[in-house]
């Protein structure tokens, strides 16, 4: 590799890094020059905050008004998928105050284990967070006392969110398979 080539490739590497870092900023700022965009990205990153959310997820699969319904699969075997619009409550009881909904699906994703792939939007309906959401995508090994799943994004107040959710089953009725699950969600966002 000659000198010039080396220089060109390290230059394009640096440009690539900057492009990559600045991409979310540069699409929103009009006419800003490169220097301003860099400053802007440093300023914005200082305004990040962390929010902790605590709520209970009410999974109702039994009765006349289930909030989670099976859309494919046999029993709870591999591939079984439920679509849900479960309520999120402030307390563990099912009739506790509703603060949002868990909309999405969960699928049995382990062949020799009980683990679900969770694809969920937690959308909130109360106070400051009304209309804002966080999205969770992860593995839910339901037999563990505590499960951790990544928060991969958010909207509204939670734009650019990233973080994690800790889940713990408070009660599970083996007959109806209804459950109440406690969630602690920690998110960093702007
Ligand atoms: C949440 O927002 C919706 C839509 O803007 C509104 O209808 C509702 O009253 C709000 N709820 C609360 C508790 O502020
Ligand atoms: C959630 O946080 C509360 C308060 O710190 C704690 O008592 C509870 O055990 C936590 N639950 C989970 C599932 O992390």
TrEMBL record:
GO terms for biological process: phenylpropanoid biosynthetic process. GO terms for cellular component: apoplast. InterPro entries: Allene_oxi_cyc_Dirigent (IPR044859), Dirigent (IPR004265). The chain crosses the membrane at residues 12-29. It is found in: Secreted, Extracellular space, Apoplast. Keywords: Apoplast, Membrane, Secreted, Transmembrane, Transmembrane helix. It holds the Pfam family Dirigent. Dirigent proteins impart stereoselectivity on the phenoxy radical-coupling reaction, yielding optically active lignans from two molecules of coniferyl alcohol in the biosynthesis of lignans, flavonolignans, and alkaloids and thus plays a central role in plant secondary metabolism. Homodimer. Belongs to the plant dirigent protein family. PANTHER family: NUCLEOPORIN-RELATED. This is Dirigent protein.
């Amino acid at each position: 590799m000659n000198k010039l080539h080396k220089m060109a490739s390290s230059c394009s590497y640096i440009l690539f890094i900057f492009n990559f870092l600045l991409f979310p900023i540069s699409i929103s700022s009009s006419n800003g020059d490169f220097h301003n965009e860099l400053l802007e990205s440093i300023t914005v990153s200082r305004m990040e905050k962390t929010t902790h959310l605590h709520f209970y997820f009410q999974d109702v699969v039994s009765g006349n008004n289930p909030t989670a319904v099976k859309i494919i699969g046999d029993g709870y075997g591999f591939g079984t998928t439920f679509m849900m619009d479960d309520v999120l409550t402030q307390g563990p009881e099912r009739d506790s105050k509703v603060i949002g909904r868990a909309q999405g699906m969960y699928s049995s994703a382990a062949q020799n284990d009980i683990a679900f792939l969770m694809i969920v939007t937690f959308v909130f309906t109360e106070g400051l967070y009304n209309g804002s959401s966080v999205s969770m995508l992860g593995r839910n090994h339901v037999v563990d006392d505590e499960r951790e799943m990544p928060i991969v994004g958010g909207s509204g107040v939670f734009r650019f969110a990233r973080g994690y959710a800790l889940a713990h089953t408070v009660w599970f009725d083996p007959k109806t398979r209804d459950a109440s699950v406690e969630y602690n969600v920690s998110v960093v966002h702007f």
